[in-house]
Amino acid sequence: MADHRLVVIGSGLAGLTTALEAARTATALEVLVLEKNPQVGGNSAKASSGINAVNPAGGDSPATYSDDTLQSGGGLSDSRLVERLVVRASAARASAFGASSEDALRFLEALGLDLSVVVQLGGHSVPRTHSNPSGPNVGFALVRAVETAVRQQPNVRIVTNAKVTSAAYSADGRLAVGYTLGLVATKPDSGSGGVGVAPEEVTVLCDGLVLATGGFAASREMLARYRPDVAGLPTTNGPWATGDGVALGGALGARLVQMDQVQVHPTGFVDPGDPDSGTKFLAPEKLRGCGALLLDDSGRRFVDELATRDVVTAAITAQPRHSAWLLLGAQGAARYGEGTLGFYSSKKLVTKVESAEAGAQHMGVDAAVLLQELAAHNTLADAAAAEAEAAAAAAARVGTVDQGGAHPPPRDVTGKRYFHGRVDVNAPVWVARVMPVVHYCMGGIQTRPDAAVLGQDGAPLHRVWAAGEVSGGLHGRNRLGGNSLAECAVFGRVAGRAAAAAIVSSTPVAAGQQVAL
Ligand code: FAD
Ligand code: SIN
C-alpha cells in the first residue's frame, strides 16, 4: 500500500501524461486516474493534425515558436506559460522537471511513437506540427502510447466510468474527491469491468489533485454563459467536454481566466446528409497545411488558407452562406494521406473527382473561373517551391540551417506567404464543404508555469495542479493549431513531476508555498 495518493481527474493526453510522469517520479506514490467515460482518451484521442515542437531541421528556434504563439495570442497569452511551453530547460532543470515542446516530443518518441511527419499550420512561420506517417489519427496514437506506458506502471490505477462530482479540502489538509462510479464498474477503484451494478457514490482521500478534465466546447450552457455569440454553432468536441473542471476547481477556490476566449475553428465538415448536425467532424487544418485551398461559391480563393484561425473563420463567416469549399489536389492528398481521405469519403464528407473541371461541376461553379484561379495559385506555389529549394541549396553550401523565422512578404492579395504544393488540374481532386465550428476553450483555470492552480488571491492552491485544456491563459485570443497537444504533453509532465515531488517530499508543501522549478 503506497503512502501517498495523487488523484488525476481526466484521462486525455494531459491526464495520462501527468499520471505517467508522477508515477515514474515517485514509486511510493499511488496515482489514481478517474475518467467519467467508459474509455480513456477524451478529445485528445480525436486530434487529427499533430503536436507542435520546435523543429530546428525546418529552420525553427524557440524564439520563433514563441513569437508565433504570442503573436497568435493577440497580446492575451501569459508569456511565462509560453516560455515554459517552448523553451528548453537547462540540463539540470530538464532532469528535474523536463518540459518544453522538444522534451515532450522526445518523451513521446521514447514511447515508440513515430512523429516524423512535420507540416506547417496556420499562423506558424515554419513547419513544426508533428504527426505519425501511418496508422490511426495522431491523437489516438498518442493516447494509446501513453496509456500503454501508464498501464505498465504498478503504481497507477485507471478507473473508468468514474465521474468526479466534488473536490474539497479535508480538515487535515488532504483532499476529498467524490465520484460516481457508473454502471459497468464492479467495485470502487477496481477499474472498469463487470456489468449491472447500480451507480455508487465513492469518496477518496488524496494528498494532491491534478485537474485534467479538458474544456467546455460541448456545453451549450457554458458557451451561452461565456460566449453567447458562438453558442449556436456546431462543435467538434465529444459530449464529455462539459467543463467539469471549472466547477471542481472553483469549489477549491481556483481563479478563472479569459473564459470568453473560445476558439471557433474555420473548417468543420458539412455532412450533405445531415447539414444541420450540432456535432461535426473536423476538417483538419493539416489539410490546408498540405496545400488545400478554400474557395467561395464562385470558385475563387478569398483568404490566406494559412492565416490564423480567427482570420480564416471570420472570412468564411463573411461568405453569403457562412461556409466555403475546400479543395485538395493530388500532390496534397499524397502528403496528407489518401487512407484518411478515404475514411472521410466513406462518411461522404469528402468527394473525390477525376479532375479540377469535375470538381467545378461538383461545386456548381464555373470551370473556367476555377481553372484560372488554380493556374494563378500554381504560379505562386511553383515560385515558392523554387525559392525554397534555392534557399535550402544555399544553406547546405554554407553548412547552416535556413532560419525560417521572420515571415516572408505576402505573395498574393489574400496575404498568403506560404504555399505547400500545386494543384494538378488534370489529376483527381478532393472536395468538401466546410463551415466554422466551436472547437477549443482558451480560457480556464489559471495556472503558473509549474502547473500549480492559482486561487482567487493569486497564490497557488495547496496541492492542486491543472494541465491541458482545463487551464487557461497560454493561448490568449487564438490558439495555434498543434499547440493544445503540446500543452497537454508539456504541462502534463510538469504537473506530474511537481505533484509527485511535493507529495513525497519530507517537507510538506504549505498552502501558498511555491515549488521551485
Ligand atoms: P481531453 O482529452 O478532452 O480529456 C479530458 C478527459 O477528462 C475526458 O476523457 C473527459 O471524459 C474527462 N473528464 C471530464 N470531466 C470529468 C469528470 N468530472 N470526472 C472524470 N473525468 C472527467 N489539438 C492539437 O494540438 N492538435 C490537433 O491535431 C488537434 N486536433 C483536434 C481534433 C479534434 C476533433 C478536437 C475536438 C480537438 C483537437 N485538438 C487538437 C485539441 C486537443 O485535442 C484538445 O484540446 C486536447 O486533447 C485536450 O486534452 P485534455 O487532456 O486537456 O482533455
Ligand atoms: C485540426 O486538426 O485542425 C485541429 C488542430 C488543433 O486544434 O490544434
From TrEMBL:
GO MF term (any one): oxidoreductase activity
Keyword Oxidoreductase on entry: yes
Name of the featured protein: FAD-dependent oxidoreductase 2 FAD-binding domain-containing protein
Nuclease in keyword set: no
Entry-linked Pfam families: FAD_binding_2 (PF00890)
Residues covered by region (Disordered): 44-72
Domain FAD-dependent oxidoreductase 2 FAD-binding: 6-485
Record's signal peptide: none
Keywords for the protein's UniProt record, in alphabetical order: Flavoprotein, Oxidoreductase
